[in-house]
């Protein structure tokens, strides 16, 4: 099925213009005897007349085909079966999901018949908390949708997760709005309590460590992203972590520009955290809920995960009234071939227009 956006309709308008130019030609009029005209310089009389057939049918058809090919190529054609559909399934894998037969049955039923299955949160080295973020998973699903939409008429999304409230961040609603239409949500059971976690042994910025060095451009940063949420306060940045980090460490906090602000190492002896910032000891910042959650996380005292409110989940599944996903400019598999064929015909057009025995001169047209 070919998609025909406005560029293709412009090409159809050009076809009408070319056809009109081929029908409107200049023709010689029948000569008549008029003696006084012998003092007028001899020229071939010309007049515009409307013919019912083109002056050169083959050249006319060639130009129409070139315009059709160019319009179809820039319109982004797609060859898909009518009614074809593909389904993307996002599956959460984290320590917050309760193991058991119910969880396995829900996941097995969801992935059955799926075109693409994406597991998010399965790599602990990439997760700063037990509950993986839903926003990066949605971005990955949107990229998969862009690829599958060239082969399927509709692409559906199913999310199989625990939907803990901490899995959602400030960017999640905006990213969800990019997916057109509703999303199927399958809730997995959450654990009754988090895995036991020991208190972290902290290494302040002034401590010496092979993990960091003096920052090349020290200064003040007004926020830090942590596993428990953003910490909004003025922080002094004086340390920069080495790259790459050792394989037994992972970032657990980031500066606003994305650089690691703290790293964690978990060993049999316990948790160690190297923080390149100092938490304020007094002031309004300590009243923020994110600061209290961060201190609880450092102490290993985290409450049981809570699922997002049912009404909020229903709004998330339904999505916005109109999706904000703009049609992205893309090169479909058919477009290069159509452009190549149009180029070949454009090279042949001058040869066809100059061939002997055709054109205006062959019909007595000057």
Question: Care to describe what's here?
Answer:
- This protein folds into three domains: 6-30 and 40-78 and 332-363, no CATH class; 85-194 and 306-318; 200-299, no CATH class.
- Helices cover 29% and strands 22% of the residues.
- The protein has helices spanning 6-23, 57-74, 101-111, 134-148, 172-176, 289-299, 310-318, 334-353; strands at 24-27, 47-50, 85-92, 116-120, 154-161, 184-187, 200-203, 212-221, 224-226, 229-231, 235-241, 249-255, 260-267, 270-275.
- β5, α5 and β6 (184-187) form a beta-alpha-beta unit.
- The radius of gyration is 34 Å and the shape is elongated.
- The two termini are 45 Å apart.
- Mean pLDDT is 77; it is low at 122-129, 324-331 and 360-366.
In short:
This protein is α/β, with parallel strands linked by helices. It has three domains: about 5-30 and about 40-80 and about 330-365, no CATH class; about 85-195 and about 305-320; about 200-300, no CATH class. About 30% of the residues lie in helices and about 20% in strands.
């Amino acid at each position: 099925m070919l998609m025909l956006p406005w560029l293709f309709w412009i090409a159809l308008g050009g076809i009408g213009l070319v056809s009109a130019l081929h029908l409107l030609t200049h023709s010689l009029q029948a000569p008549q005897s008029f003696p006084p005209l012998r003092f007028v310089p001899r020229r071939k009389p010309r007049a515009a007349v409307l013919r019912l057939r083109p002056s050169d049918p083959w050249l006319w058809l060639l130009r129409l085909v070139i315009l059709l090919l160019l319009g179809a190529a820039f319109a982004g054609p797609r060859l898909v079966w009518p009614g074809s559909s593909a389904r993307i399934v996002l599956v959460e894998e984290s320590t917050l999901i309760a193991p058991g037969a119910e969880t396995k049955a829900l996941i097995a039923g969801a992935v059955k018949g799926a075109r693409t299955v994406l597991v998010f949160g399965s790599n602990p080295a990439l997760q700063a908390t037990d509950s993986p973020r839903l926003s990066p998973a949605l971005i990955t699903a949107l990229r998969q949708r862009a690829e599958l939409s060239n082969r399927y008429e509709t692409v559906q999304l199913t999310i199989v997760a625990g939907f803990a409230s901490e899995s959602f961040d400030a960017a999640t609603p905006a990213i969800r709005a990019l997916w057109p239409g509703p999303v199927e949500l399958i809730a997995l059971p959450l654990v009754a309590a988090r895995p036991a976690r020991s208190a972290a042994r902290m290494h302040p910025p002034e401590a010496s460590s092979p993990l960091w060095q003096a920052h090349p451009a020290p200064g003040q940063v007004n926020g830090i992203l942590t596993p428990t949420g953003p910490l909004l306060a003025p922080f002094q940045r004086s340390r920069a972590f080495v790259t790459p980090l050792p394989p037994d460490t992972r970032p657990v906090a980031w500066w606003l520009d994305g650089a690691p602000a703290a790293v964690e190492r978990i060993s049999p002896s316990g948790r160690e955290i190297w923080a390149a910032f100092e938490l304020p000891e007094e002031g309004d910042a300590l009243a923020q809920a994110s600061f209290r959650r961060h201190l609880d996380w450092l102490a290993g005292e985290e409450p049981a995960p809570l699922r997002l409110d049912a009404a909020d989940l229903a709004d998330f599944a339904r999505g916005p009234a109109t999706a904000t996903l703009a049609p992205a400019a893309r090169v479909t598999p058919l477009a290069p071939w159509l452009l190549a064929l149009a180029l070949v015909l454009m090279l042949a057009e001058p040869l066809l227009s100059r061939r002997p025995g055709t054109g205006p001169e062959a019909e007595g047209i000057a």
